[in-house]
Design brief:
Strand order of the largest sheet: 2-1-3-4
Distance between the termini: 31 Å
Radius of gyration: 17 Å
Order of helices and strands: EHEHHHHHHEEH
Low-confidence stretches: none
Number of strands: 4
Helix content: 40-55%
Shape: globular
Mean pLDDT: 95
Oligomer: single chain
Number of helices: 8
Length: 206
Amino acid sequence: MTEKIPVDLWFDPFCPFAWATSRWLLEVEKVRAVEPRWHVMSLNVLNEGKDVPDSYREAIVRAIEPVRVVAAARAAHGDEVVGPLYTELGTRLHNERGMKDLSRLGELIEDSLEAIGLSRDLAAAAHSTEWDDAVRASHQEGITLVGQDVGTPVIRVGANAFFGPVITSIPKGEDAGRLWDGVLLVTEFEDFFELKRTRTRQPTFD
């Protein structure tokens, strides 16, 4: 049996692009020998002191809440709950459009916890600064790999790390594998830094 390659992905549950990339990585897992490992980062921490539009800053003001809850769940139950909890949070936030009504964010977090067999009481971590040091440490671990001028998601494979890929749909089957192969190929070159074009559509999660 081929040994699986660990692939670390840093995410903020609020980020739709990280969500699309994370779902692609799960598709890659079906066709390539990879083992996804999940870590939090924070849009709030990322944008501290940066000149970003007020509308964007307002949009992410509550982003720290689910990140804190993931950090609290990890501390209480181990790394193995991070991926499943992210799946539940992301499905509700993005596929089910929970981002459109953040007045229900607390209930959404509680439902996500319950769906993987964890206590709804962990949702209280959303409003506690107790987990902020852990969030910052995880964020710093990821962002240090790629530099401060990028964001989420961050992926690390062995000695290589990169921001993205930023995708607006989720490749399936061998298409997912081919994209993975291409990403790995270019990131193996030490002097390769950027390949980009202007986004013309928002992500979809079918």
